[in-house]
Amino acid sequence: MKLVRYKKAYHKIAMGFLSYSSGDQPVKQLQETMTRYETDDSWEMYLVKEQEDLIGIVGAEVAEHSFVVQHLSINPSFRGQGIGKEMVVKLQEEFPDKTPYGNEYTDAFVSKCVLEETRAER
User: Fold this and answer.
1) Terminus-to-terminus CA distance in the chain, angstroms?
2) pTM greater than the 0.85 cutoff
3) Is 105 helix (H, G, I), strand (E, B) or coil?
4) What is the C-alpha to C-alpha distance for residues 42 and 15, in angstroms, rounded to an integer?
5) Which residues, by range, are in coiled-coil regions (predicted)?
6) Domain 2-121 sits in CATH 3.40.50.2000
7) What is the mean pLDDT of residues 38-61?
8) Surface-to-core class of residue 93, CB atoms within 10 Å of its CB (0-12 exposed, 13-18 middle, 19+ buried)
9) CA-to-CA distance for 119 and 82, rounded, in angstroms?
10) Where are the domains of the chain?
11) Are 67 and 96 in contact (CB under 8 A)?
12) Rounded Cα distance, 37 and 75, in Å
């Protein structure tokens, strides 16, 4: 599995994944979120590639010493396989000098992933 930095060509695919993670958000709100990823330099999105398939997205707001996972979404066919945790770990590899956090929706999952990774390193 690898992370591929978002670019405009992936817009529709990313919107689809974003709609999985955003519940009942109206399309206009999803479009505003995508615009933020496209225009705000502190918001970064990655598509998750497994072999040749794009299977999810992970998006974060990156600050000087930390990053906050804002969105994490996986194709339902690939859920329950540990890919979400692997996505968080790969994101940590992208920003090794930053502390990972989650927002109100992702915090419990991100905290669990970080804790498990810390234990695995011991």
Assistant:
1) 24
2) yes
3) coil
4) 19
5) none
6) no
7) 95
8) exposed
9) 16
10) 2-121
11) no
12) 20
Q: Spell out where 30-114 has E strands.
A: 43-50, 53-62, 66-74, 99-102
3-state secondary structure of 7: coil
Tokens of 30: 């999803």
Other CB atoms within 10 A of residue 44 CB: 20
Cβ proximity of 96 and 66 under 8 Å:
no
CA dist., res. 29 & res. 63, Å (int) = 23
Tokens, residue 43:
């918001």
What pLDDT is recorded for position 71? 94
Query: In terms of DSSP bridges, do strands 53-62 and 2-5 run parallel, antiparallel, or are they unpaired?
Result: unpaired
Average pLDDT, the chain: 90
Yes or no: say if 113 and 84 are a contact pair by the CB < 8 Å rule.
yes
Can you tell me whether residue 122 is helix, strand or coil?
coil
Return the sign of the alpha-carbon dihedral for residues 83, 94, 36, 106.
positive
Amino acid letter, residue 66: S
pLDDT of the residue at 83: 92
Model confidence over 100-113: pLDDT tens digits?
999 999 999 999 98
62: tokens are 């990156």
